[in-house]
């Protein structure tokens, strides 16, 4: 008698699952996310209709139907964007009113969407190159904020929480006692993310991440050539160290200066905090500055200029809640890296289209 009851329960469960699949498919056939009003659309997906359409054109060819019968490329993109925006795990997205799909379906779909978005969007929207006009505007912004001339970008690291990795977990266990990725980012005066390196675990110090960063390698290779002109930020630069010309009253030591370059006889620098190592290209705070000294005044001005990178982190994590400190990415580190990269590209697209956070 008991086996018959178990068979009946299993049959009921199979029938319920099939009914859920039919219901989700019916919803997908009768609803389109594009029909949402502009404000509701941005609130749900963090991007505008125009950005959505642009992304869809870029990745649609990569999103073949496969086993996801009845799920269009539009719906796959919407589900991924909704996950980035809310930070809810797959089940939360799978039950969303506008993009109904099973959790297992979403898991498979997200991998394909991520791979395509990273390949098509990141190299296009995340770049260190800057036009001369943008460099001048950045220089003016940082000069007004800090009084330090020639600054065009800021660098810092931010931790993105992830679940406990299955392997090499000690690489990701940070000093706060949680597992994370230490993502190095460089932003400009408009909070655009010009560079991101998210492949190192939270146990790695900012200096370690910087030393192995492609951005550092790029600048280091140019510096090794002495005063050889090279293309950077869309303009010819010449390496020249002279901190006195940046801040005349500053008793800044040469070992505390990094990223000093000339652009049309104007210095062009990158600001970073004291966690970064001493090199030839980055302005960092003066250590152990005496109160009321010129060095202390410089540090205050340095902080005023560097605050924009902290604001950029705040906007990025507020816009895409999957990266927020209250969340935890439930994926392997390699997939988390892709999520971070794609969110940075989407963040820049939002800035380009004038979408406020």
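^ structure tokens above, recovered residues below v
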């Amino acid at each position: 008698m008991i086996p018959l009851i178990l068979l009946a329960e299993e049959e009921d469960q199979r029938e319920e699952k099939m009914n859920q699949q039919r219901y989700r498919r019916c919803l997908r056939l009768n609803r389109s996310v594009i029909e949402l009003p502009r404000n509701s659309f941005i609130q749900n997906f963090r991007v505008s209709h125009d950005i959505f359409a642009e992304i869809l054109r870029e990745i649609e060819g990569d999103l073949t139907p496969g086993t996801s019968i009845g799920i269009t490329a539009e719906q796959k993109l919407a589900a991924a964007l909704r996950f980035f925006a809310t930070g809810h795990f797959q089940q939360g997205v799978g039950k969303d009113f506008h993009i109904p799909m099973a959790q297992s379906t979403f898991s498979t779909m997200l991998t394909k969407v991520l791979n395509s978005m990273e390949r098509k969007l990141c190299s296009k929207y995340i770049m260190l190159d800057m036009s001369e006009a943008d460099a001048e505007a950045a220089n003016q912004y940082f000069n007004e904020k800090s009084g330090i001339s020639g600054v065009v970008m800021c660098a810092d690291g931010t931790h993105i929480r992830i679940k406990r990795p299955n392997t090499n977990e000690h690489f990701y266990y940070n000093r706060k006692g949680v597992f994370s990725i230490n993502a190095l980012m460089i932003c400009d005066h408009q909070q655009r993310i010009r560079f991101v390196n998210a492949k190192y675990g939270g146990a790695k110090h900012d200096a370690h991440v910087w030393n192995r960063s492609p951005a550092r390698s790029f600048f280091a290779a140019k510096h090794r050539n002495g005063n050889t002109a090279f293309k950077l930020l869309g303009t010819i630069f010449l390496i020249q160290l002279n901190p006195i010309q940046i801040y005349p009253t500053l008793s800044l030591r040469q070992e505390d200066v990094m990223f000093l370059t000339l652009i049309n006889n104007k210095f062009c620098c990158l600001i970073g905090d004291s966690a970064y190592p001493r090199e030839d290209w980055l302005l960092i705070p003066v250590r152990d500055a005496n109160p009321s000294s010129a060095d202390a005044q410089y540090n205050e001005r340095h902080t005023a200029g560097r605050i924009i990178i902290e604001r950029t982190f705040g906007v990025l994590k507020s816009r895409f809640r999957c990266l927020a400190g209250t969340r935890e990415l439930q994926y392997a580190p390699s997939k988390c890296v892709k999520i971070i990269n794609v969110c940075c590209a989407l963040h820049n697209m939002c800035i380009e289209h004038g979408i406020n956070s």
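Residues 19-30, 90-97, 226-268 have pLDDT under 50 and may be disordered.
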